[in-house]
Amino acid sequence: MNPSIAGLFLDYSARKLREMTGLVETCLAKLSDEQVWEREAAHENTIANLILHLCGNTRQWIMHGVAEQTDVRERDAEFGTASGFTKAELLALFQSTIAEAVAVLEALPHERLTDRTDPQQRGEVFVLEAIYQVVGHVQQHTGQIILLTKQMCQRDLDLTIPRPR
Questions:
Q1: Domain 5-153 top-level CATH class
Q2: For residues 146 and 143, what is the distance between their CA atoms, to the nearest angstrom?
Q3: Helix segments in the chain, DSSP class H
Q4: Nearest-CA neighbor of 17 among 60, 47, 62?
Q5: What's the rounded Cα separation, in Å, for the pair 58 and 79?
Q6: What is the pTM of this model?
Q7: What is the pLDDT of residues 65-111, one digit of tens each?
Q8: In degrees rounded to 5, what are phi and psi of residue 109?
Protein backbone atom coordinates (compact mmCIF):
# COMPACT_ATOMS: atom_id res chain seq x y z
CA MET A 1 0.00 0.00 0.00
CA ASN A 2 1.34 3.39 -0.99
CA PRO A 3 -0.04 6.13 1.31
CA SER A 4 -1.08 9.42 -0.25
CA ILE A 5 0.75 12.63 0.50
CA ALA A 6 -2.56 14.09 1.73
CA GLY A 7 -3.05 11.20 4.13
CA LEU A 8 0.52 11.45 5.39
CA PHE A 9 0.13 15.20 5.94
CA LEU A 10 -3.12 14.84 7.89
CA ASP A 11 -1.81 11.92 9.97
CA TYR A 12 1.41 13.74 10.80
CA SER A 13 -0.45 16.95 11.67
CA ALA A 14 -2.76 15.08 14.06
CA ARG A 15 0.21 13.25 15.60
CA LYS A 16 2.12 16.51 16.20
CA LEU A 17 -0.91 18.11 17.86
CA ARG A 18 -1.26 15.09 20.17
CA GLU A 19 2.48 15.22 20.93
CA MET A 20 2.29 18.90 21.86
CA THR A 21 -0.69 18.14 24.11
CA GLY A 22 1.44 15.62 25.97
CA LEU A 23 4.21 18.18 26.46
CA VAL A 24 1.77 20.77 27.79
CA GLU A 25 0.32 18.13 30.14
CA THR A 26 3.82 17.36 31.46
CA CYS A 27 4.55 21.04 32.04
CA LEU A 28 1.30 21.78 33.83
CA ALA A 29 1.80 18.76 36.10
CA LYS A 30 4.96 20.45 37.43
CA LEU A 31 3.31 23.81 38.16
CA SER A 32 0.85 25.22 40.66
CA ASP A 33 -2.36 27.05 39.86
CA GLU A 34 -0.58 30.28 40.76
CA GLN A 35 2.46 29.61 38.56
CA VAL A 36 0.41 29.26 35.37
CA TRP A 37 -0.64 32.90 35.84
CA GLU A 38 2.83 34.26 36.71
CA ARG A 39 4.64 36.77 34.54
CA GLU A 40 7.83 38.71 35.16
CA ALA A 41 6.68 41.83 33.31
CA ALA A 42 3.52 43.24 31.76
CA HIS A 43 4.76 42.59 28.21
CA GLU A 44 5.16 38.83 28.85
CA ASN A 45 2.50 36.16 28.45
CA THR A 46 1.54 33.77 31.20
CA ILE A 47 1.33 30.05 30.50
CA ALA A 48 -2.42 30.35 31.06
CA ASN A 49 -2.70 33.10 28.44
CA LEU A 50 -0.69 31.02 25.97
CA ILE A 51 -3.06 28.09 26.48
CA LEU A 52 -6.13 30.30 26.05
CA HIS A 53 -4.52 31.76 22.92
CA LEU A 54 -3.77 28.34 21.44
CA CYS A 55 -7.35 27.24 22.05
CA GLY A 56 -8.76 30.36 20.41
CA ASN A 57 -6.40 30.18 17.44
CA THR A 58 -6.95 26.45 16.89
CA ARG A 59 -10.71 26.87 17.11
CA GLN A 60 -10.65 29.76 14.63
CA TRP A 61 -8.39 28.15 12.06
CA ILE A 62 -9.47 24.50 12.28
CA MET A 63 -13.02 24.36 13.61
CA HIS A 64 -14.09 27.58 11.87
CA GLY A 65 -11.74 27.76 8.88
CA VAL A 66 -11.59 24.06 8.02
CA ALA A 67 -14.75 22.54 9.55
CA GLU A 68 -16.83 25.64 8.77
CA GLN A 69 -18.20 26.05 12.30
CA THR A 70 -19.18 29.46 13.67
CA ASP A 71 -16.22 31.65 14.61
CA VAL A 72 -16.45 32.19 18.39
CA ARG A 73 -12.94 33.50 19.00
CA GLU A 74 -12.39 36.46 21.34
CA ARG A 75 -8.67 37.10 20.82
CA ASP A 76 -8.37 40.03 23.22
CA ALA A 77 -9.69 37.86 26.07
CA GLU A 78 -6.98 35.27 25.39
CA PHE A 79 -4.34 37.77 26.49
CA GLY A 80 -6.46 40.05 28.70
CA THR A 81 -7.55 37.36 31.14
CA ALA A 82 -5.48 37.53 34.32
CA SER A 83 -7.05 34.72 36.37
CA GLY A 84 -10.14 32.60 36.68
CA PHE A 85 -8.93 29.20 35.48
CA THR A 86 -7.13 26.52 37.43
CA LYS A 87 -4.39 24.58 35.70
CA ALA A 88 -6.76 21.58 35.59
CA GLU A 89 -9.39 23.68 33.81
CA LEU A 90 -6.82 25.07 31.39
CA LEU A 91 -5.52 21.59 30.63
CA ALA A 92 -9.05 20.24 30.09
CA LEU A 93 -9.81 23.13 27.71
CA PHE A 94 -6.57 22.57 25.80
CA GLN A 95 -7.06 18.80 25.61
CA SER A 96 -10.65 19.10 24.40
CA THR A 97 -9.77 21.79 21.84
CA ILE A 98 -6.90 19.77 20.39
CA ALA A 99 -8.97 16.56 20.43
CA GLU A 100 -11.70 18.35 18.48
CA ALA A 101 -9.16 19.69 15.97
CA VAL A 102 -7.62 16.23 15.56
CA ALA A 103 -11.09 14.77 14.94
CA VAL A 104 -11.61 17.37 12.19
CA LEU A 105 -8.28 16.40 10.59
CA GLU A 106 -8.99 12.68 10.83
CA ALA A 107 -12.39 13.08 9.15
CA LEU A 108 -11.26 15.57 6.51
CA PRO A 109 -11.63 14.33 2.92
CA HIS A 110 -8.21 14.61 1.26
CA GLU A 111 -9.57 16.65 -1.63
CA ARG A 112 -10.53 19.43 0.83
CA LEU A 113 -6.83 20.28 1.37
CA THR A 114 -6.90 22.41 -1.78
CA ASP A 115 -10.15 24.23 -0.89
CA ARG A 116 -9.81 27.88 0.05
CA THR A 117 -10.74 29.29 3.46
CA ASP A 118 -10.49 32.68 5.19
CA PRO A 119 -10.55 31.97 8.93
CA GLN A 120 -9.46 35.44 10.05
CA GLN A 121 -11.02 37.53 7.27
CA ARG A 122 -7.52 38.59 6.19
CA GLY A 123 -7.28 36.73 2.92
CA GLU A 124 -7.90 33.23 1.71
CA VAL A 125 -5.51 30.35 2.23
CA PHE A 126 -5.67 26.71 1.25
CA VAL A 127 -7.06 24.38 3.92
CA LEU A 128 -3.64 22.71 3.89
CA GLU A 129 -2.07 26.07 4.84
CA ALA A 130 -4.58 26.60 7.65
CA ILE A 131 -3.68 23.21 9.14
CA TYR A 132 0.04 23.87 8.73
CA GLN A 133 -0.35 27.26 10.42
CA VAL A 134 -2.04 25.70 13.46
CA VAL A 135 0.47 22.87 13.89
CA GLY A 136 3.38 25.32 13.71
CA HIS A 137 1.65 27.77 16.02
CA VAL A 138 0.94 25.08 18.64
CA GLN A 139 4.57 23.91 18.44
CA GLN A 140 5.86 27.49 18.80
CA HIS A 141 3.86 28.28 21.91
CA THR A 142 4.41 24.82 23.40
CA GLY A 143 8.12 25.65 23.22
CA GLN A 144 7.44 28.84 25.16
CA ILE A 145 5.43 26.90 27.76
CA ILE A 146 8.34 24.47 28.13
CA LEU A 147 10.84 27.31 28.57
CA LEU A 148 8.66 29.09 31.14
CA THR A 149 8.18 25.82 33.03
CA LYS A 150 11.94 25.18 33.06
CA GLN A 151 12.54 28.67 34.40
CA MET A 152 9.89 28.32 37.12
CA CYS A 153 11.07 24.84 38.15
CA GLN A 154 14.74 25.85 37.77
CA ARG A 155 15.62 22.55 36.12
CA ASP A 156 15.48 20.64 32.86
CA LEU A 157 12.24 18.76 32.35
CA ASP A 158 13.83 15.77 30.54
CA LEU A 159 11.17 15.89 27.85
CA THR A 160 13.31 14.18 25.25
CA ILE A 161 16.21 11.86 25.95
CA PRO A 162 16.93 11.83 29.70
CA ARG A 163 20.61 12.48 30.32
CA PRO A 164 22.78 12.66 33.41
CA ARG A 165 23.49 16.11 34.78
A1: mainly alpha
A2: 5
A3: 5-29, 47-58, 75-80, 87-107, 127-153
A4: 62
A5: 15
A6: 0.94
A7: 999 999 999 998 999 888 899 999 999 999 999 999 999 999 999 99
A8: -65, 135
